[in-house]
Design a protein that fits this description.
Blueprint (H helix, E strand, L loop, with lengths): L6 H45 L6 H7 L1 H7 L18 H5 L3 H5 L17 H12 L12 H4 L23 H5 L3 H7 L34 H6 L11 E2 L1 H5 L22 H7 L25 H8 L10 E2 L13
Antiparallel strand pairs: 1-2
């Protein structure tokens, strides 16, 4: 009896052959992947000892430097999930391979990199910048005043100490170690609330460098002041030129013995421009002390020194009031 193949039978045979081909391809690919993975592991095992030659591990360091190791454990540097020493070679990430140091019996600076005042500040900073150079605050370090003066990262920071940004002291106290004249100003009766802990030097200056003068965080003194004193920005109908030019013309931002951080007391401060021989030149810009209409000459100094300029001109940063007949402005 002759057997006939139907189209359905032909289709089943075709599908079965395709399935077998796919199966063989998957098996071949899997075997190739395993072979390649094994080769990579074997090569890595051969190279790793060469790359880590001379490294002894953090536990060996702990044997002699237990105090430093304990404080290090509480810092961000000891966190493995952070790109830093612990995610690489721990202590030896910053201090270099320690095998020779151990072989020679240890000792400060014996075949190991140490962070000391006598060490090269550029080399000490380079160790830190290996990880921190890509951070935004360090973008202008190479042009900073601190770098040019030979200041290194570890002069202000301690990699083994926990706390705010690993600083060696609290906030502005770090700055005062060098800037002692500023400490004296901050202790004057009129000062920004630095001692009270409300602001710090870092709020106005970037110690790691800026493109602006005196490492200020803004392009001008006024723009920096306006971040807190926005009400002084204006614009005003009657602008006061010294205010527009620079807040420092009248104020000392680090501290003063006069109210409101003024560099001199009123009216002496005002007379620098508005008195005889002032910066603006010519005749005095006030009637007081000359011939003020309606005021007896004997009382003119009383009006000037006893009541001061701000008694009549309280809006000295600028005013939207109309000028009076004699041209006075900066009134409410």
């Amino acid at each position: 009896m002759k057997c006939f193949r139907t189209p359905v039978d032909n289709e089943k045979e075709h599908n079965g052959g395709t399935f077998m081909i796919r199966r063989y391809l998957i098996l071949i690919f899997s075997a190739f992947t395993l072979l390649l993975f094994s080769a990579v592991l074997s090569i890595g095992n051969e190279i790793a000892p060469l790359e880590k030659k001379g490294y002894i591990g953090a536990e060996t360091c702990k044997g002699c430097h237990e105090g430093q190791f304990e404080t290090y454990k509480h810092t961000v540097h000891s966190k493995k999930h952070v790109k830093g020493p612990e995610s690489q070679d721990a202590c030896e990430t910053c201090h270099g391979p320690g095998a020779k140091h151990v072989e020679k019996g240890g000792g400060r600076g014996v075949d190991i990199f140490t962070f000391t005042k006598k060490g090269d500040p550029e080399m000490r900073t380079a160790k830190c910048l290996a990880c921190h150079e890509v951070m935004r605050d360090q973008a202008f370090w190479n042009n900073s005043k601190h770098k040019n003066e030979g200041v290194a990262c570890d002069d202000c920071h301690s990699p083994h100490r926990g706390g705010n940004k690993l600083l060696k002291a609290d906030k502005s106290e770090v700055c005062y170690q060098c800037h002692r004249d500023i400490r004296a100003m901050v202790n004057k009766q009129s000062h920004h609330p630095i001692k009270e802990g409300k602001i710090s030097c870092n709020d106005c200056h970037n110690p790691h460098g800026e493109v602006y003068d005196k490492m200020l965080r803004s392009s001008s003194v006024n723009d920096l002041c306006y971040k807190c004193h926005a009400e002084k920005r204006g614009p005003y109908l009657n602008q006061h030129p010294p205010v527009e030019e620079n807040c420092d013309n009248c104020h000392n931002p680090h501290g003063s013995n006069h109210n409101r951080l003024l560099s001199q007391r009123v009216p002496v401060l005002c007379e620098q421009c508005h008195g005889n021989g002032g910066n603006m030149g010519g005749a005095p810009f006030t009637h007081f002390g000359t011939s003020a209409p309606g005021i007896a000459s004997a009382n003119q100094k009383v009006y000037m020194y006893g009541r001061a300029c701000l008694n009549c001109h309280p809006s000295i940063h600028g005013s939207n009031g109309l000028r009076s007949v004699n041209g006075c402005s900066f009134r409410d």
